[in-house]
């Protein structure tokens, strides 16, 4: 599912006020890091991630990260990227 231009603008504006939650470090896109991003996306609609390491490979790693977490890349500016994944709607139990 792709996002409309108005949705992208809304998410980009909201992302301006976020601090990076996670940093890509020496381990890169390890399974543990992917799980951390996945958990953050389960709690928050938008997640800002900073490249502390692998800065030269960020253009190649960013789409891989979005794909592995089933999220949308909202923006990548400098060494920071923002991902979005809608939180699942909680089902209320039937009475």
Q: What order do the SSEs take from the amino end to the carboxyl end, as H and E?
A: HEHEHEE
- Bulk shape: globular
Structural classification: alpha+beta
What percent of residues are in strands?
Answer: 15-25%
Report the strand count.
4
Alpha-carbon distance between the two ends: 32 Å
Number of helices: 3
Major β-sheet profile: 4 strands, mixed
Helix content: 25-40%
The strand order across the widest sheet is: 1-2-4-3
Radius of gyration: 14 Å
What's the overall average pLDDT, rounded? 90
Low-confidence stretches: none
Structure, described:
With 95 residues, this protein is an alpha+beta fold. The chain contains 3 helices and 4 strands, in the order αβαβαββ. A 4-stranded mixed sheet has the order 1-2-4-3, with helices on both faces. A hairpin with a 2-residue loop joins strand 3 and strand 4 (80-84). It is globular, with a radius of gyration of 14 Å. The N and C termini lie far apart (32 Å). The model has no long low-confidence stretch (mean pLDDT 90).
Features of the shown structure:
globular; 37% helix; 95 residues; 3 helices; 4 strands; 21% strand
């Amino acid at each position: 599912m792709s996002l409309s231009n108005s949705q992208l603008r809304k998410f980009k504006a909201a992302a301006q006020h976020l601090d990076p939650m996670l940093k890509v470090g020496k381990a890169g896109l390890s399974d543990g890091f992917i799980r951390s991003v996945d958990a953050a996306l389960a709690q928050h609609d938008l997640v800002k991630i900073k490249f502390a390491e692998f800065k030269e490979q960020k253009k190649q790693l960013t789409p891989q990260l979005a794909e592995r977490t089933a999220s949308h890349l909202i923006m990548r500016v400098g060494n920071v990227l923002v991902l979005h994944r809608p939180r699942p709607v909680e089902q209320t139990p039937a009475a």
